[in-house]
Amino acid sequence: MSDDPIKVSDETCVGCQLCVKACPFNAISMDDKLAVIDLTQCTLCGACVPACKFDAITMRESTKAAADFSAYKDVWVFAEQDDGVIQSVTYELLGEGRQLADDLGMQLCAILLGSGMEAQAQDLIARGAEKVYLVDQPELTYFQDEPYAAVISELVLRHQPNVLLCGATTVGRSVVSRVAIATGAGLTADCTGLAIDPDTKDLLQTRPAFGGNIMATIQSPHTRPQMATVRHKVFKEAEPDSARTGEVLLQEIDKALLASRTKRLSFVPEEDNIVNIAEADYVIGGGRGMGSPEHFDILHELAEVLGGGVSASRAAVDANWIAYSHQVGQTGKTVCPKIYIACGISGQIQHLAGMSSSDVIIAINKDPDAPIFSVATVGIVGDVFEIVPRLTAELRKVLGK
Ligand SMILES: Cc1cc2nc3c(=O)[nH]c(=O)nc-3n(C[C@H](O)[C@H](O)[C@H](O)COP(=O)(O)OP(=O)(O)OC[C@H]3O[C@@H](n4cnc5c(N)ncnc54)[C@H](O)[C@@H]3O)c2cc1C
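Above: query sequence and flavin-adenine dinucleotide SMILES. Below: predicted holo structure tokens.
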């Protein structure tokens, strides 16, 4: 009898090819109407098993239950701080983490690195963390890849969390990928949805794939912790409640973990990025239709009247009309303002990925068939150079500015 970890029954396989389509690793082919699994390509991810409507594919029980994860407990949130200020994505993760922890029957914990952070630890408790693992060291005052990754990896190995969530920010993406390598865990980047599988209790991590054309749900059933970075502004922030109580667990660490080959000399904020578009309530986006960098001035004027920021499509950024930090979309920032005004932006799927959850979208485009109109709350077919200055003038009057 074959001892293969995964098998296809030649009695029940009907040659429908559903498993071929379900296999993300192209490990299944058809041979005379029978599915054949190439074990040199197969990663035993198990995607083909539920895809088969005829129960023709079976995985050996011992393969499915190879690892014992019973020691892995709790949902951890990496509390990102900048100059001692907890970043709002942390509160969003605590809000979503609460639901996940409740679904798992586990505790919600935060992990905080910095110097003199006791008050911030209490803030995390007020936002729902039942435990805060605090590492308080002067070397951790500011984020640096190497010591942050080394300390978090050490705490992960010491306490064995079941889930570790991080903001999909520059800091989060940078540090957690190192932690995933150091701890041998799976990591899903840039998630927009999280849930617990009611049967397996695995974390279901949903993110856009193939240029935003499909949503993929990813699991890490063979490793722990299950790690995900989550996009800013996707989840609602956990509300603070000062009546909440929790434990702050000060963690001793080996000083060797604090070594870094880089040193922070100073911090120079980007000059033309005074308004953080990821946090702004009003965002004015400019695209290729703006025609030149000088023409962005009319967008800055409108943004100033509204008290908002200016964003851009990748086409405008690639043309060097505006800095990358303003780019919105799949490879830029995600924004979720009260009003997003898209000026001369066609509305390709990669741009929509970063702004379609705005409360109100106003699109100004001279092409009535531009795809941006399909997501717009209000669509204005016309020339941005006529409409934007008029809009700014009217708003100046109405707002008394
Ligand atoms: C892997 C990948 C990742 C990507 N990531 C991103 C991303 O993060 N963000 C992003 O934005 N794009 C991204 N893109 C690029 C994306 O596919 C589009 O090419 C880009 O968004 C187009 O920018 P645009 O709408 O400014 O330009 P265009 O598509 O050229 O549209 C310009 C629009 O301006 C209108 N227009 C012209 N003149 C005027 C005028 N005077 N008044 C009014 N309207 C006018 C036109 O009718 C047109 O609709 C990515 C692409 C790939 C392949």
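Residues 88-104 form the longest helix (17 residues).
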